[in-house]
Each structure stands twice: as structure tokens, then as C-alpha cells.
Write a structure and sequence with these properties.
This protein is mostly helical and 191 residues long. The protein is built from 10 helices and 2 strands, in the order ααααααααααββ. The protein has helices spanning 2-11, 14-23, 28-41, 46-54, 62-72, 77-83, 89-102, 108-116, 122-135, 146-158; strands spanning 175-180, 185-190. It has a two-stranded antiparallel sheet with strand order 1-2. The two termini are 20 Å apart.
């Protein structure tokens, strides 16, 4: 148990996460090594990815970050959907694209809300509709409003459906993610 706790602490170490993000663009081998480390960090890496996306001096990282987020997938869903509260349309579009690439229906309520919002920019709506069609190619959820989808999401979580389970069921706490408008980033609160 102590060894496992040490592995988690190392994987979630902020300096290690930042280093993995910095080197992932160096070569294909560096990308693979970084993906292993960032996958181990899981949802704890998302705030650092967002910081890189928001830093104009690191704009060259954007496509690689989008690919890495898509590759890591489901463990990143909770903080990514909360990051959709960001006011920046270009950043929202990147996150929407990642959610579509990840392909889990947990993102549908958030995407449907963007698509239905009359204040959403046309390119953001288009990105949300594309992501929805990637997640739900058969149109199984197409008749549902965003509110219906949020209710469906809550019921699936309540009924312990496996793909809706918490990321770390064997740990004492799990992160509940909130968008911090001052930081323009997500913040995890252990609960």
C-alpha cells in the first residue's frame, strides 16, 4: 500500500507532469514516454495542459496537447467538461474536439448545451455538433435536450454504471473539478 501511494505521489507530482508536457513535442519516442507518465497522472495533468494551451509563448504545443488529451481519454473527462466554462471560444473549440475524440457519452450534456445556446459562436456550435455526431453516430441521444442528458448522466452515475464510475475507486478521496474564473483553469477538490 505504501509503495502504491508512492507511485501515485510520483505520477501526480506537478514538476514531473510539467516536464512530461514540455518534452512530449521533442520526438515520437518522447511523446510515447510522456504519454505513459501523463496517463499515470490522469486527471491531475489537465490543469497543466490548460496552462500550456493558454500560454501564447507555448502555442506550438497546441496540436500535440489536443492529441495527447485525446490519447489519454476517459480519465480526463471530468476536468475537461468543467473547463468548458472558459470564456475563450478557441480554447472551448479545442476542448470540444478532444471530447469528441475521446468519444464517451458523459460529454453529451455539455456539448448539447453548447449546441443549443444561442450565444455560442457559430464555429463553436459546429464543433459541438461534430463532437456529438462522433460520440453518438447512431443518433440514440439526438431526441434528448441538454437538460434530459444531464438527468440521464446523473441517473447513470447514481446507478453505478461501470463507465460512469469514479476514476480512483480504491482511494480515500476523488477529485471534484470546478472551473476557477480567476485562474481560467480547473481546480480539483478532494472529496
Amino acid at each position: 500500500a505504501l509503495l502504491n501511494k508512492g507511485h501515485l505521489a510520483l505520477a501526480r507530482n506537478p514538476a514531473r507532469i510539467v516536464k512530461a508536457i514540455k518534452v512530449m513535442v521533442n520526438s515520437p519516442r518522447a511523446y510515447v514516454v510522456s504519454r505513459e507518465r501523463l496517463t499515470a497522472a490522469g486527471e491531475f495533468a489537465v490543469p497543466f495542459f490548460i496552462q500550456f494551451l493558454n500560454n501564447p509563448s507555448r502555442s506550438s504545443y497546441g496540436p500535440t496537447i489536443v492529441q495527447m488529451l485525446s490519447d489519454i481519454g476517459k480519465p480526463l473527462l471530468n476536468p475537461l467538461v468543467r473547463q468548458l466554462a472558459v470564456p475563450s471560444t478557441p480554447e472551448k473549440i479545442q476542448i470540444v474536439q478532444v471530447l469528441g475524440n475521446i468519444g464517451y457519452p458523459q460529454a453529451l450534456p455539455y456539448l448539447a448545451q453548447i449546441a443549443a445556446d444561442k450565444n455560442s459562436a457559430p464555429n463553436l456550435k459546429a464543433a459541438a455538433l461534430t463532437a456529438i455526431s462522433k460520440i453518438d453516430p447512431s443518433g440514440e441521444f439526438s431526441h434528448m435536450t441538454a437538460a434530459d442528458l444531464y438527468l440521464w448522466l446523473a441517473e447513470a452515475y447514481y446507478h453505478n454504471e461501470p463507465s460512469f464510475a469514479v476514476n480512483h475507486p480504491n482511494e480515500d478521496t476523488n477529485q471534484v473539478w470546478y472551473y476557477d474564473s480567476g485562474l481560467q483553469d480547473v481546480v480539483g477538490v478532494p472529496v
